[in-house]
Structure formats: structure tokens, C-alpha cells
Design brief:
The protein is mainly beta. The chain has 4 helices and 48 strands. The protein has a 22-stranded antiparallel beta barrel. Strands 5-11-12-9-10 form a 5-stranded mixed beta sheet. Strands 6-7-8 form a 3-stranded antiparallel beta sheet. A hairpin with a 4-residue loop joins strand 29 and strand 30. The protein is globular. 49% of the residues are buried.
Length: 779
């Protein structure tokens, strides 16, 4: 396959596969339409029935098919069967979800056109990330190894009532397995290419059971390693040769106390260490003069000569500076459930700390021009949530709650341009400079919230209609201290800024929905929901940005047909986003700006699970999205002078009509597996194919910051012993070995001699393969 600096080109084969996938979806959808008049499925599901998933998306246990929200859920068993190890894999299985990283330990999560590119300390992602009910502010806390997980729920669209805080794009809920009252254990080991090895295990069982008090425990551990995916040709003694490698460990102890039949308490802790220096590849061919200017520059034709687009290699670099990225996190939570005669009281207490340390080669070449880092971020957060939820036996069910959240973030950043090989800003001069910035940000947020659902089927009317109304009032306060010290001796310029800041916002959000149960297995719904992301100030820079708000209108259908062998879920939505927050990087700093006008986003999401035969499993997830900026007047952050189509005097640009960041116009995921039963166990081959339209990473939609349409294929074969105690899995991911861009940022404008900031890419993993061996003990 042809490759280049902006990713893979779509091939004729890819187009054929996409047409085939859409045709398959159409056939299944037609089958579903023809069967909508079918009677309810029997009480006992057939052998080949699609498994029912129970979720807590509305803070109570419900069947996924009965929840009037666009939500996808994957159980731990499904994650394992489909080879979903971390978030990058998950984003290929869930409609409208995309995931990337910027190389500094932060992750970028996007749903329905809303991407969490605000990775600055104290910044808020528009997609809320929760672990066992605890909201995590920093995306550095995202777990790259989903293991011993009960399920992952992805709610799409604003969750402005029950999750509230900054969930305009959606909410991702990770629910881990809890301690059990019977002994069980599991361990597995993986070996693969790139020197990959992973050891994982868990053990659970009872510790105490007497006098109406029961105590169960669970301990989970992970140790994962692989060498770098990217080759560094530099022979400098300071060069790093482990780019895109990973050394990761996790320890997760849990205790569950059961006091009689009405009270239980879960104590949870999660400790992680992740050393994963990303191979941030700077496209210095976009502005090569300073890199190649003789006699000190990189010699033409040398192994380190990447001075043209044709010479650029996504997974080969020549960087003389070290690359370091270390993230440590600790998460503690206590969840109390008390079942009262009329309702259930729940208390969730959470505390999390994180430390992120990053150093990068700022110029991306084998010359001592620019250094990024160290960049250090320390965060700590505390949250307390109380909920009271009525039982489900009455027409009116309700939930009321209150949450308090506090976070404290401290950051320090350093960057240096040495002036090496420089002629800017004047011949014989230099643009050497040093930049130090940072500061603190404290966040205090509290919110009362409530939701009421009235089920007319439980009244004398007997109409299978449920009306839901939810409201939330959020109060956000942020304050802190900024410092900025920029020194440019060549032009005798020094910028020194420091001082405190404080901002406060209040917002009412909520939703109104109606759902109609056509049959016992078919439900339709419509909803209108309002969401909100708080504003802030970019620490160290003093850049103030306003809150982002969104209205979303959605209609959906959830149905199970053909004796539960076919599950079809469709959601269509229209969103209007006001003051969309966009990440902007200029010559010396980064910050957030707000889109001036309203930004419309609309799309259709389809999920299909179909078991035509008892042992054959088919699944598809298809997303169509139209997401373009409204009126957005901003300075082009790539060019110091007016960029293409921008005003020559003010240098301002209107990016109206440009595609939103991290939002492809379509994605298609197809999966198939067949279970062969033998006398010595089952053998299950599986194939997953993922197709994506092109992805833009910056508001200017410049041709160098685009990932072209691409496709990836994963295959696996799994053997499970008859008694379920042993498992062997062989797998290969990204068979095409495609170079797919995960994220794109910009580097200092000084690299482009004051004219242009070159792109800086990170990539998803290349082709990987391996074998995993597992042993299970217990029931």
C-alpha cells in the first residue's frame, strides 16, 4: 500500500469492501424491517440468541435494549473475544468514537464531532471518563490495558443530567469485575513481535463470612511490555531508541463487604505506571531550510535526510534528543449501596492522583535546534456523590442526587530554541529563545440533579409509553496562578507575566425523552438533551475561554428479532454546538478559542448483531457523520502571515465549512466468528475489518494534517478447553501494516523561519501479532 506523511491512501480494494459492508448492513436492515411485526421472542432464548447485556447507564440496572439512549456496551467476554485490549481497539468497535494521543501522556477522545483536545491542566474533555462511577478529569488516567473488566459502556450525546460534568459528547463508563464469594482465579501470558510480553492475573474469593457479615476480596495485576514501533537512526549518545515502546504495570486490590441483604460496601484501589515515549514525528520537510542550511545542516542524501515529502518515513526518524514519557496514577473509591424500603441510597467517594513527566525532541531531527520539556503535570482530585433511586415497581420512578468535585493541578513547562543554523529574524541573527510557563488551577464544582420516568404501562391506561425528564444545575469555579517567562535575546525581547486568576460559571442542563415499547423486544425513542462544558484559562498563558454548550435531538430504534438472533439498534441525531472549544497553538504557546457561530453536527449510527446459525456470530457498526464548523473567525495557527484564504492584513481566517477535528465522515466495523465444537474443546476463528473516511486534525484542514481514508484488518483463532480451564489465542492486528495517524499537532514557528509551523504526527501501532496462553481456576 502507498504511504505518505498524511497517512494511507484508500485503495480500490478498500472501496469494494466498504460497498460490500454497506450492502450487508442493508440486507440485515431489510430483514429487520420485514420482521418488525413478529411476535415477542419466547421467554427462553434460543441457543443462537444474541446475549442480553445489563448496563447501569441510567444509574440503575437495565437491559441495554430498554434504555432510551444511544449507548453501546461490550462485556469483558466480548472485549476478550474481539481482541479489544485498550482504548485504541475500542474506538474501532463503537460508532462515532475515535481515540488518539499527542505523545505527552494525554489522550484525545472524540464522540460525535466533539474531541477532547484540551489536554492542558485543568482543561476539560467534552467526553466524560468514569471508572466504577468516579469521574476522572485528566485523560492520563485512561487505562491502556482493559483487563478483568465486567463491561465498558459508551453513551453518545450529551448526558447533562445523570453524568453532567463536561459530558456534551458522551460518557464512557468502565466497570471492573467485583470480588466474588467463591474462589476463582485466572492467569495468562502473551508473547508477540516487537519483543511484546504481557502477564495478567486475577484472584478472588471469600475472606470472612459470619454473623451476617461477608467479606470478599479480589486482586488484579498486569505487567505489559513491548519495544519501540519506530526506528531512530540517530547515533547521538542522547538519542532514545525506544520510541513508541511501552512498560506498564497495574495493581488493583478490592474488598467487598456485605452486611445482611440490604447493605454492601466496595473498596477499590487502582495503581498504574506507564512509561510509553511516543514517537512524535515532526514533518520538517514542510520547512527544511534551517535543517539543511549548509555547512551545519543535515547533508543531502544522508540517512537522516527527510527534507522532502518523498523522503519522509512515518516509522523512521533521526532524533538526537531524548524522549521520555512517564505517567503514574492512583485511584481510590468507596461505593456504598443501602436498599431502603422505598429506594436505594448510593454513595460514591473517589480520590485520584496523577503524575505526568514528558521530554521530547522538539525539532524532530538530528540537529540541536529545539527542545521540548521537561513538561511536568501533577494532579489530584476528590469527588463525593450521593444518589437516591426509587424502586422500579411503580409507574413513577425517580432518581435524585448531588455531587461535589474538587481538583488541583500544577504544571511546569520548558522549551528552548538554541538558535542553531538560524538566520531569522535577520541575516546573521538568531531566534534563540527560552520559554518557561506554568502555574496552578483549582476546580470546585457541585451539582444537584434528578430524573423522573413515568411508565404509562403500569397505570390503568396500559400504554407502553414512558416519559422522562431530567434536570441538573452545575456550579463551576476555577482559580489559580499563571507564570510566563519568554526571553528572545536576539531582538532584546523579554516577556514576563504572572498573576492570579479566577472564573465562575453556572448552567442548567437536562433532557426530555419519550420511549414507546412496540413489542417485548422492540422499542423506539425520541429525546432532546442539553449539555455543557465549563470554560477556563490556559495555565501559564492566561488564555481565557468560554463554556461550550450543546443541544442534541435524537431518535432511535432498538429491536431484537428472529427469536433474539438479530439485534438492530439505530440512532439518528442532530446537534447544534455553541462556542465550540478549539485547541489553537501559536508561535510560543497553546490555548483554547471558541467558535463564533453555531456548529451543526448530524449523523446516523447503526449497530447490528446477527447469529444466523447457532455457532456463527456476525456484527457490524456503521457511522455516517456530517460535522463542519460554523462561523469561526480565528488567526491561522499554522502560518505567521496570512494562510490560504485568510485576510492579508489582519491574518484572520474564517474556517466555516471546514471539517471538525477527529471526526471522519464514515466508519464501518465488520466482525465474524464461527465456533467449531470438537472432542477436545472449541476452536473459534474470528476476523474484524475496520474502515474509516479521512480525518482532519486541525481547523484549517490543511492538506498535511489529514489522515486519508484507511482500513485495518484483525484476525484471531482461539481454542478453549472443554472444561473451560485453558485457552490459547493466536492473533494478528493491522494486517495491512497501515501507517495511520492518531493525532497531529504543530511545532514552534521558529522551525519554519517565522513562516510556518510544521506538523507533528503520532501513529497507531503497526502490524502486531502474538500468542496468548490462559489458565482459569474455579467455576
Amino acid at each position: 500500500m502507498a504511504s505518505g506523511p498524511i497517512g494511507e491512501d484508500i485503495t480500490v480494494t478498500t472501496a469494494t469492501r466498504i460497498c460490500a459492508s454497506v450492502s450487508l448492513a442493508a440486507v440485515v436492515a431489510a430483514t429487520a424491517s420485514a420482521a418488525l411485526a413478529a411476535t415477542d421472542s419466547p421467554a427462553t432464548q434460543s441457543v443462537g440468541a444474541v446475549a442480553e447485556i445489563v448496563i447501569t447507564a441510567q444509574r440503575r440496572e437495565e437491559s441495554l435494549e430498554r434504555v432510551p439512549v444511544a449507548v453501546s456496551a461490550m462485556t469483558g467476554q466480548a472485549l476478550e473475544a474481539q481482541g479489544v485490549v485498550g482504548f485504541a481497539d475500542l474506538s474501532e468497535r463503537i460508532p462515532s468514537l475515535r481515540f488518539g494521543w499527542n505523545g505527552g501522556g494525554e489522550y484525545i477522545i472524540a464522540i460525535r464531532g466533539l474531541s477532547g483536545q484540551n489536554v492542558t491542566p485543568g482543561g476539560d474533555s467534552p467526553v466524560a471518563y468514569n471508572v466504577n462511577g468516579v469521574y476522572l478529569e485528566q485523560t492520563t488516567a485512561v487505562d491502556p490495558e482493559y483487563y478483568d473488566v465486567q463491561r465498558v459502556e459508551v453513551l453518545r450525546g450529551p448526558q447533562g443530567t445523570l453524568y453532567g460534568r463536561n459530558s456534551v459528547g458522551g460518557s464512557i463508563n468502565v466497570v471492573t469485575e467485583e470480588p466474588a464469594n467463591v474462589f476463582a482465579a485466572s492467569a495468562d501470558a502473551l508473547v508477540g513481535n516487537y519483543d511484546a510480553y504481557t502477564f495478567r492475573s486475577w484472584i478472588t474469593g471469600p475472606l470472612f463470612d459470619s454473623g451476617g457479615v461477608q467479606v470478599d476480596a479480589r486482586l488484579t495485576g498486569v505487567w505489559a511490555h513491548h519495544s519501540g514501533y519506530t526506528t531512530n537512526l540517530s547515533t547521538a549518545p542522547t538519542a532514545s531508541h525506544d520510541l513508541d515502546s511501552m512498560d506498564y504495570w497495574l495493581v488493583r486490590p478490592q474488598l467487598k463487604f456485605v452486611f445482611g441483604s440490604n447493605v454492601d460496601l466496595l473498596l477499590f484501589a487502582n495503581f498504574t505506571h506507564n512509561s510509553a515515549p511516543a514517537a512524535a514525528n515532526t514533518a520538517w520537510w514542510e520547512a527544511p531550510f534551517r535543517f539543511t542550511n549548509p555547512p551545519l545542516g543535515i547533508a543531502p542524501g544522508s540517512p537522516c535526510d527527510f527534507s522532502t515529502a518523498a523522503l519522509f518515513q512515518p516509522r523512521t526518524v533521526c532524533q538526537d534528543s531524548p524522549a521520555i514519557s512517564v505517567v503514574n496514577t492512583q485511584l481510590y473509591s468507596a461505593t456504598l449501596n443501602w436498599r431502603l424500603p422505598f429506594a436505594t441510597f448510593t454513595s460514591v467517594t473517589g480520590y485520584e492522583t496523577g503524575h505526568d513527566f514528558t521530554v521530547q525532541d522538539g525539532d524532530g531531527a538530528n540537529v540541536p535546534i529545539f527542545f521540548n520539556g521537561p513538561w511536568q503535570v501533577d494532579n489530584a482530585q476528590f469527588s463525593q456523590e450521593f444518589r437516591l433511586a426509587s424502586h422500579d415497581d411503580q409507574p413513577l420512578r425517580w432518581l435524585a442526587g448531588f455531587i461535589y468535585f474538587h481538583a488541583s493541578d500544577v504544571t511546569n513547562f520548558f522549551a528552548e530554541d538554541t538558535g542553531f543554523n538560524d538566520i531569522f529574524p535577520k541575516p546573521g541573527g538568531g531566534d534563540e529563545f527560552t520559554l518557561r510557563d506554568g502555574g496552578t488551577v483549582h476546580t470546585d464544582s457541585w451539582a444537584p440533579f434528578g430524573q423522573a420516568d413515568f411508565d404509562f404501562a403500569k397505570t390503568h391506561l396500559g400504554v407502553p409509553l414512558t416519559i422522562s425528564l431530567g434536570l441538573r444545575y452545575t456550579h463551576d469555579h476555577k482559580d489559580g496562578f499563571n507564570f510566563l517567562n519568554e526571553v528572545l535575546p536576539a531582538i532584546s525581547r523579554t516577556v514576563a507575566l504572572q498573576g492570579p486568576w479566577s472564573r465562575t460559571w453556572d448552567k442548567v442542563t437536562g433532557k426530555l425523552s419519550a420511549q414507546y415499547q412496540f413489542t417485548g423486544t422492540s422499542m423506539g425513542y425520541v429525546s432532546a438533551a442539553h449539555g455543557y462544558v465549563s470554560g477556563g484559562e490556559t495555565v501559564g498563558v492566561g488564555n481565557v475561554y468560554d463554556p461550550e454548550t450543546l443541544w442534541s435531538y435524537e431518535a432511535g430504534l432498538k429491536t431484537r428479532l428472529l427469536d433474539d438472533r438479530l439485534q438492530l439498534n439505530i440512532a439518528a441525531y442532530y446537534e447544534t454546538i455553541e462556542h465550540l472549544q478549539v485547541f489553537v497553538q501559536n508561535a510560543i504557546a497553546s490555548g483554547i478559542s471558541n467558535v463564533n457561530g453555531k456548529t451543526p453536527v448530524y449523523g446516523v449510527e447503526t449497530e447490528i448483531n446477527y447469529n444466523p446459525l447457532d455457532n456463527l456470530r456476525l456484527n457490524a457498526a456503521i457511522t455516517l457523520t456530517d460535522a463542519h464548523y460554523g462561523t469561526y473567525i480565528s488567526k491561522d495557527n499554522r502560518f505567521s502571515i496570512a494562510g490560504p484564504g485568510c485576510d492579508a492584513v489582519t491574518h484572520l481566517c474564517d474556517f466555516k465549512g471546514n471539517a471538525l477535528n477527529q471526526t471522519p465522515p464514515y466508519t464501518v466495523d465488520l466482525g465474524a466468528e464461527y465456533i467449531f465444537h470438537t472432542t477436545f474443546g472449541t476452536i473459534t476463528p474470528r476476523v474484524d475489518a475496520f474502515f474509516s473516511g479521512k480525518v482532519n486534525f486541525l481547523a484549517d484542514n490543511y492538506f498535511t494534517s489529514v489522515q486519508a481514508a484507511y482500513h485495518e484488518t484483525n484476525i484471531s483463532v482461539t481454542w478453549n478447553s472443554t472444561d473451560g480451564h485453558y485457552r490459547i489465542e493466536a492473533f494478528a492486528k493491522n494486517l495491512e501494516n497501515a501507517n495511520v495517524i492518531a493525532s497531529d499537532g504543530l511545532q514552534s514557528i521558529s522551525l519554519g523561519q517565522g513562516k510556518i509551523e510544521p506538523d507533528r504526527y503520532t501513529y497507531y501501532p503497526p502490524r502486531t501479532f502474538g500468542v496468548r496462553f490462559a489458565v482459569n481456576v474455579g467455576p
